[in-house]
Design brief:
Length: 344
């Protein structure tokens, strides 16, 4: 059974002082929940850091609870419409395991539960009425914590109302509870695959999460015609080194998953101890780009505070221009640090 109490955890691993001192009663606290698959990986430090709570969460007072001000961009009760052509629907607040770095802590695991029929219909109506919306993220929480019946009825409502909208199925279940991806679930999703494709959006942060079972779970989607993209979070002590990220990308590609984003950790209260400086992040981005193919390279991205939206963070190779005897020439730095001039 999944772990929900510190006592249970203490009988499995030797807890450290900061873990023992975790206070589960704070405003910014995320519940403790670690799935069996992740419990078995806890000996790996990178997994432990992602799932075992620490008192450091309670000590963080800098971050905001809703740094992206998603509340300000609410289309309906469960729908955030922040970008003109896409929106995010919160299917449920539940996950199979709660990541200590979760940026949606104000919402995740706080008992609002699955979206009800009224909320789904409201969102479907909103999306239909805003025909500039081309893509909808079915996120949360984790959509696959919902029952097969609930997923069936949700997709049915959405697809009937807006058949030509692309729906992204955002889930961490393939990593933390791959058994959830059953033939029946895939059959239900395929039933609603008309008018526009589905995309699977996974979250793998460390190569150890790409177990044989996880890779198999993802393959069920891909084999059904649903492409898979991965969103990682850059996390201190988990994947903030070049070697780990390169291995992660290699393993993702071997599993036919395209590395899509590498997120800078949002300034969410309770996650400061897991954040990496943007300066170091940019250095990592530059270094791994030299080692990875275009397919393997994720976009290092920050979600700006006050609803500023996502921006790509990248080392800039373009260094300006010079006027050379009346001719304008661009100056570039090569990935190896040399200079090159590029004619206008
Ligand atoms: C990230 C995000 C999206 C999707 O953005 P992409 O850059 O297309 O992946 C849509 N809506 C919200 C609210 C988001 O945070
Ligand atoms: S799976 Fe996603 S929503 Fe759930 S706790 Fe992890 S980061 Fe948060």
């Amino acid at each position: 059974m999944a772990i929900t109490e510190m006592d249970e955890l203490a009988s499995l691993i030797e807890l450290r002082e900061d873990e023992k001192a975790w206070d589960s009663s704070g405003e910014s606290t995320l519940p403790l929940l670690i799935s069996d698959d992740m419990v078995s990986l806890l000996p790996i430090e990178a997994i432990r850091k992602q799932f075992v709570p620490s008192q450091k969460e309670n000590e963080d007072t800098i971050g905001s609870l809703d740094p992206q001000e998603e509340k300000e961009h609410q289309g309906t009760e469960r729908l955030v419409h922040r970008y003109r052509n896409r929106a995010a629907f919160f299917t449920t607040d539940r996950c199979f395991a709660y990541c200590r770095h979760c940026f949606r802590r104000r919402f995740t695991g706080h008992l609002s539960g699955p979206a009800n029929e009224k909320e789904i219909k409201e969102a479907a109506k909103y999306i239909k009425e805003h025909n500039e919306i081309r893509e909808v993220l079915l996120t949360g929480g984790d959509i696959f914590t919902l029952s097969d019946e609930k997923i069936d009825s949700m997709l049915s409502i959405f697809k009937t109302s807006c058949p030509n909208v692309i729906f992204r199925l955002c889930t961490r279940s393939v990593a933390v509870y791959p058994e959830r991806i059953t033939e029946n679930l895939i059959r239900i999703i395929k039933k609603h695959m008309y008018g526009a494709p589905f995309f699977l959006m996974t979250q793998f942060n460390h190569p150890a999460e790409l177990t044989e079972k996880a890779v198999h779970a993802v393959s069920l989607f891909i084999d059904s015609g649903i492409p898979a993209y991965n969103q990682s979070v850059l996390l201190k002590g988990v994947n903030d080194d070049e070697k780990t990220l390169i291995e992660l990308s290699d393993n993702l590609l071997m599993a036919r998953i395209k590395p899509y984003y590498l997120f800078q950790g949002d300034p969410v209260r309770g996650t400061a101890h897991l954040r990496v400086s943007i300066e170091r992040g940019l250095e990592i981005e530059k270094n791994i780009r030299k080692e990875l193919s275009g397919l393997g390279m994720p976009q290092y991205t920050a979600d700006l505070p006050q609803g500023g939206g996502k921006v790509i963070l990248t080392h800039t190779y373009y260094k300006g221009s010079v006027n050379d005897n009346g001719k304008e020439r661009y100056i570039f730095e090569t990935p190896d640090g040399e200079m090159r001039y590029y004619p206008e």
